[in-house]
Design brief:
The complex is a heterodimer. Chain A contains eight helices and four strands. Chain A is α+β, with helices and mostly antiparallel strands. Chain A folds into two domains: 72 residues; 77 residues, Glutaredoxin (3-Layer(aba) Sandwich), CATH 3.40.30.10. The longest helix of chain A has 13 residues. In chain B, strand 18, helix 15 and strand 19 form a beta-alpha-beta unit. Chain B has a five-stranded mixed sheet, with helices on both faces. In chain B, strands 11-10-13-16 form a four-stranded parallel sheet, sandwiched between helices. A four-stranded mixed sheet of chain B has the order 12-19-18-17, sandwiched between helices. Chain B contains 19 helices and 19 strands. Chain B has three domains: 89 residues, Ubiquitin-like (UB roll); 79 residues, Alpha-Beta Plaits (2-Layer Sandwich); 358 residues, Rossmann fold. The chains are: A alpha+beta, B alpha/beta. Bound molecules: iron/sulfur cluster (SF4) (3 copies) and FE2/S2 (inorganic) cluster. One iron/sulfur cluster (SF4) binds next to helix 9 and helix 11 of chain B.
């Protein structure tokens, strides 16, 4: 896999995010097991793993793209698509689950036309299911960005969503 | 060598250190079933079918190294029950449609179920869902039949260094897929088909063209012309129970005529022609010291590999079309003209040991005036299926012969089927052309055999030395190209066949299951058939083929002439690496 350095130079010198990622790749490219930290870095910087950047990782670290994709799609921490402007995280921890938070997820999914892990086509919302948010007293709970909504019933959903529109 | 002593089912066994329990058992006539294990290729230990009992534990024997004093049990109730459960679970998540499955009776999962006497499947749960991937011109993937053994992934990655497929997602959603779940046709896949050869089940197979070919044969308006590649004749018989590597050239031509093809030609003729064109090209490049090393272009999987991964070396590829495409081009021009047939009425079919040829047949640049050089490509397996469907008693059919003008070929054309054949054939001709002397010993032994990389040097009479390297398997090709780019190796000529062993073990050949693959050297067995055929032929040098001489006189003029370029040469495209 040639042209490794060239691809790294594709990062725009004026793009500080790109430069941060480039530096991190350079530091990790010869380290065994360097892939996962690199993917974490990219996820943190961009909020997801952009295709072009993964191609660069493949080239510069000499790791086949299929292998990178395998790792990226294995861990739920990584996202292969950009997240929406607002991230909805519905708790599926035991307490919330018992109080049927699944029904809340289903309702949001219906309202937005997406399923867990997806982002609406207008890029506004991403729907995620999370483990315990530590607000069991308010179950079932969800967070939209950093705002918490508790004691939810299905019918609350449209109104709450409209607040973010 | 360190020796390890242990017991299997009470039998004392001695093996070299490092031997797995599975290998040791098999070498001693003890049968342990396996599924994901593929010798030298796949050791994922993913399926757990090969469980054995060691002390209180059940362990997968394919990845368990034998140790001194170990007491292994392979046939206890516990072992049998565990293996049965493993297979039952596999079957519960499998699209079970054996009756219509392309791999029925040649499926390792089916044989396992039979071997373990599985009569019902107690677990019925959700089954993995996935659409049939028909995006590739050559290969169909059925994720609902995939058992996630990983044999295709190891083959594509470690053996071929293409890395078109891998595991994606996890848990119940795990699947074998190209990156981003793209269609295989939209990836770096070279269409070599080696993943098909590795797959134990019906999850990977060629895109069939049997229906298209029957339709053409039935159409009274069409003139259906077929040609068969060198490697087909040493493998087709296997589909009819004949010994591996048996030569069935006469039976094959007879069967093709019975199937209703109007003319039956030999691709070996195209191979002889390739030698004339490519040999001349090599001599020219040597003279001009330009675009060296010359890289062979007969293998469409190799060509696509270069287009994706080494697009800075496209000028090194020979501009020659592959033998079958050359012959296809001549069938619709020279031959059609000669016979007074309207080329538009011709349906040109090739029988190939290869699935990449299906992709090649579809390449836009391989045709003229809107007519494709080759219309349909069938694999050796598909031909066998047609012969069976037609009820032809293959084993008792009387031998027949190819027809002219593309029926007469030399031994040089035949050996294209084995790795090293192109180089040997080219050397036979180049030597004589440059020296004007007769080459007495035509067998270049240094380029024979199944090793992945073989080098040779031949001194020509004009003082020039040709340094050639013969490669089979794409990971080996990658190694050689990287060495050339790094400047550590220098060659004048590179022959590459993508399939390990060359076309005799191509992706369209009869499938050999993992057990037989362990026991026999199929590459050598089929190659022997090829070299036997070479030896049996009166003429063994391409430029001595009387029909080749005639073709140049009547139509092409001389090798690399203007007319040759119009019909027999092509160009390549740069493709994306991702
Ligand atoms: S055909 Fe060859 S290159 Fe394509 S996926 Fe299969 S093994 Fe890989
Ligand atoms: S496609 Fe075939 S070889 Fe590949 S993992 Fe699935 S079953 Fe195994
Ligand atoms: S080596 Fe032969 S069978 Fe294999 S892809 Fe190349 S041409 Fe086809
Ligand atoms: S785990 Fe041993 S054969 Fe699959």
């Amino acid at each position: 896999m040639s042209n490794a350095e060239n691809r790294l130079n594709d990062f725009d010198p004026n793009d500080s995010k790109g430069q941060e990622v480039k530096k991190f790749i350079q530091e990790h490219k010869n380290i065994k097991g360097g892939l996962i930290p690199v993917l974490h870095k990219i996820q943190d910087v961009y909020g997801y793993l952009p295709k072009e950047t993964l191609n660069t990782v493949s080239d510069s670290m000499n790791i086949p793209l299929t292998e990178i994709y395998g790792v990226a799609s294995f861990y739920s921490y990584f996202s292969l698509t950009p997240k929406g402007k607002h991230v909805i995280r519905v708790c599926l921890g035991t307490a919330c689950y018992v109080k049927n938070s699944q029904a809340i997820i289903d309702e949001i999914g219906r309202e937005l036309g997406i399923t867990v892990g997806q982002t609406t086509s207008d890029g506004k919302f991403t729907l995620e299911a999370t483990r315990c948010l530590g607000a069991c007293g308010l179950s079932p709970v969800m967070m939209i960005d950093d705002k918490v909504f508790g004691r939810l019933v299905k019918d609350d959903v449209p109104k709450i969503l409209s607040e973010f529109n | 060598m360190d020796i390890v002593k242990f017991t299997i089912d009470g039998k004392e066994i001695e093996v070299p250190k490092g031997t797995t329990v599975l290998q040791a058992a098999r070498a001693n006539g003890i049968n342990i079933p396996s599924l994901c294990y593929l010798k030298d290729v796949n050791k994922t230990a993913a399926c757990r079918v090969c469980l054995v009992e060691v002390g209180p534990k059940l362990i997968a024997s394919c990845s368990l190294e034998a140790e001194n004093g170990m007491a292994v049990k392979t046939n206890t109730k516990k072992v049998r029950d565990a293996r049965r459960t493993v297979v039952e679970l596999l079957l519960s998540n499998h699209k079970r449609e054996c009756l219509t499955c392309i791999r029925s009776e040649n499926c390792e999962l089916q044989s396992l179920a039979k071997e373990l006497n599985i009569r019902d499947i107690p677990y019925e749960g959700e089954k993995i869902k996935g659409d049939l991937d028909v995006s590739s011109k050559s290969i169909v993937r059925d994720p609902e039949k995939c058992i996630l053994c990983g044999r295709c992934i190891s083959t594509c990655g470690d053996v071929q260094s293409v890395y078109a497929i891998g595991y994606g997602n996890r848990g119940f959603k795990t699947k074998v897929t190209p990156a981003y779940e793209r269609g295989l046709g939209d990836t770096v896949c070279t269409n070599c088909g080696q993943c098909i050869m590795a797959c134990p089940v019906g999850a990977l197979h060629e895109k069939e063209n049997i229906v298209d070919v029957w339709k053409a044969i039935e159409d009274p308006e069409k003139v259906v012309i077929v040609q068969t590649a060198p490697a087909v004749r040493v493998a087709l018989g296997e589909e009819f129970g004949l010994q591996r590597g048996t030569r069935v050239t006469g039976k094959m031509t007879a069967a093709l005529k019975k199937l209703g093809f109007d003319y039956v030609f030999d691709t070996d003729f195209g191979a002889d022609l390739t030698i004339m064109e490519e040999g001349t090209e090599l001599l020219n490049r040597l003279n001009e010291n330009k675009n060296l090393p010359l890289m062979s272009s007969c293998c469409p999987a190799w060509v696509k590999f270069v287009e994706h991964y080494y697009s800075d070396m496209l000028d090194n590829l020979s501009t020659c079309k592959s033998p079958s495409e050359m012959e296809g081009a001549l069938i619709k021009s020279y031959f059609a003209n000669k016979m007074g047939i309207d080329p538009k009425k011709i349906v040109s079919v090739s029988i190939m040991p290869c699935v990449a040829k299906k992709f090649e047949g579809d390449r836009e640049e391989l045709g003229k005036d809107g007519l494709s050089d080759i219309d349909y490509v069938l694999t050796t397996r598909e031909l066998a299926r047609m012969i069976k469907e037609a009820g032809i008693d293959f084993n008792n059919i009387e031998d027949d012969e190819f027809e002219n003008p593309f029926g007469e070929a030399t031994g040089a054309g035949v050996i294209f089927g084995a790795t090293g054949g192109v180089t040997e054939a080219a050397l036979r001709t180049i030597y004589e052309i440059t020296s004007g002397e007769e080459l007495k010993d035509v067998e270049f032994k240094a380029v024979r055999g199944t090793e992945g990389i073989k080098e040779t040097e031949v001194k020509l009479k004009n003082g020039k030395t040709v340094k050639a390297v013969v490669v089979n398997g794409l990971a080996n090709a990658r190694k050689v190209l990287d060495e050339i780019k790094a400047g550590s190796k220098k060659y004048d000529f590179i022959e590459v066949m993508a399939c390990p062993g060359g076309c005799v073990t191509g992706g369209g050949q009869p499938i050999i299951n993992s057990r037989e693959r362990e026991e026999i050297d199929i590459k050598a067995q089929r190659a022997k058939g090829i070299y036997d055929e070479d030896k049996s032929l009166p003429i063994r040098k391409s430029h001595k083929n009387p029909y080749i001489i005639k073709l140049y006189k009547e139509f092409l003029g001389e090798p690399n002439s203007h007319v040759s370029h119009e019909y027999l040469h092509t160009h390549y495209v740069k493709r994306n690496k991702f």
